[in-house]
User: What shape does this take?
Amino acid sequence: MDKVSISSAFAKKRTVWIKTFGCQMNYHDSERILSHLQEINFTQTDDPATADLILFNTCAIRDLANSKFYSGLGEIKKIKGGRPDLLVGIAGCISQTDGEELLKKYKHLDFAFGTDTIDQINEMIYRLYQGEHKIFSNSQDNRSNYSIETKITHGSLQAFVNIIKGCNNFCSYCIVPFTRGREKSRKIAEVVADVRNLVLTKNIQEVTLLGQNVNSFGKENGENLSQLILELEKIEGLRLLRYTTSHPKDLSDELISVYKVASKLSNHLHLPIQSGSDSVLKRMNRGHDTAHYINLIQKIRSLRPDIVISTDIIVGFPNETEEEYQATIDFIEKMQFDFIYSYAFSARQGTKAAQMADSLSEDLRNRRLVLLQNVQVEIQRAIRAALVGKHFVMLLEGSNSKNGIKKWFGRTSCHRLVHVKMEDDNSNYQWKWVEVEIISTTPHSCQGKFIKFC
Ligand code: SAH
Ligand code: SF4
Ligand code: F3S
Assistant: This one.
C-alpha cells in the first residue's frame, strides 16, 4: 500500500465488523475499540463480507468460547482470500496470551493486540495501511495510576463503567489473572466525574460498575467501593446503580452497610460461590467457605430482606466426588438463588487446576451440569411463580414480536427480565421507565401488565 499521510489514510469512509466473546468487560472493551475507530472514519457493519476491517474480541475462559472463536476465524479466511485490502485482527484474552503465536500460525491474520493496548488501535491500523505486516502488541500497562474515560457509541440510557481491571485472586481454575494482569483501580474522583459527565451529556440513567473483582476496588489508593457508591448516589439524574462481579472473600461489612442507605443501589447482588463443597472451594483457592458465604447473605438480608441473589457454579472440578457434587446440589436448594450461571469445569493451560490429576470424564461433568441445571430450573419456577401480583419499576430496553404480539422488555432493579405489552404498538417506548405488575411467569422470565410511567 502507498505511503500516505494520516489524514488522507483515514479520509475514506470504512466499515468494521466486530465479533465479541466473553464477559461484560470484553463487551465494554469492544465499545471502546469502536469509539476509537469512529475517530478515524470507521462505522460498524453487520456484514463481514463487505467490511474493511474484521475484528475478533476473544475470550479464554472455557473451551467453548475458544472453539467458537477459532471456527469464526476459519470462516473469515475465505473472505480474506478474495479481498487483499481487508484487515483482520484479534483482541481480548486469547490474543493477550497467544496472539503472537496465532499471528504466525494464521496467514490471514494481520494484527493482534492484548487487553491493555486497546487505546493503540488507531495507531496499529495506520501502521498497517502504511504497509507494515503482522503487528503484535500485548504490553501490560505498568503505570500505577489507572485512568480512562468511559466511551459510548450507542444511544442507550445504560452505561458500563470500568472501575478496576485485572485480578489478584488466582482461583486455581481461572485464566483471567493471566489475561488481564494485576488489579488496578481508578480513583473515586475520576469515576465520579466520568459518571457525572455521562449523566449530563449522554443522559445516562443506569450505570453498571465493572471489574473482575469490584470488591477490591480502590485498595491501592486507600479507597473502597462503598465510598464510591455513596458518592455516585449523590449524582442527580442517575437512577440505578449496579456492580459486577463480587468476590465473597472481599465483600466487606462496610459495603454491606451501604445497602441500608444507598437507595439507587440495585436490589440484586451477583455473588459467585462456585461450589457448595468446602473441600472443593479449598482446591479452587477461593479463600472462603460456604459458612462465610451464608453469613454474608444473612447480613445483607437483615438490611434488605427482599434482595435478589444470584451466583456462578462450576461442576466437575478435578476429582470432584459424588459427595462434593451433592453438597453443591444441597447448597443451591438451601440458598434458593434467583438464577445461576453454571459451567462444567474446563481445564485452562497454565492454571493450577489444569495440572491437578483428574479422574472425571467429560461425559460425567456434562451429566452433573445438566442435573444441576434441572434442579435450578425448578427452584426458579417456584421463585418466579411467587412474583405474580407484585409490582416492579424498570427501564424498557427494547421490543420483540412473538406470534404477532409486540412486547417490550426490561430488567427490574432486582435484575429480573420482564416482558410487557404496551398500549400502542406503533409508539416507541424504548428508554421509558415504567411500573409493571407481574401477571404470569416462567423459570426464566416474567410477563407484566403496564401500570404507569414513572
Ligand atoms: N471475576 C468473576 C468472573 C470470572 S469468569 C468472578 O470471580 O466471579 C465467570 C465465571 O466463569 C466464573 O465465575 C466461573 O464460574 C466460570 N469459570 C471461570 N473459569 C472457569 C473454568 N476454567 N472452567 C469452567 N468455568 C469457569
Ligand atoms: Fe477468576 Fe477468581 Fe479472579 Fe474471578 S476472582 S476473575 S474467578 S481468579
Ligand atoms: Fe473471557 Fe477474558 Fe472476560 S477470559 S470472561 S473475556 S476477562
Observations:
- Residues 144-266 form a domain with the Transcription Regulator spoIIAA fold (CATH 3.30.750.210).
- The radius of gyration is 23 Å.
- The pocket of S-adenosyl-L-homocysteine (ligand 1) is lined by residues 61-62, 173-174, 176, 212-213, 245, 247, 272, 274, 312, 314, 343, 345-346, 348 (CB under 6 Å).
- The CA atoms of residues 329 and 375 lie 8 Å apart.
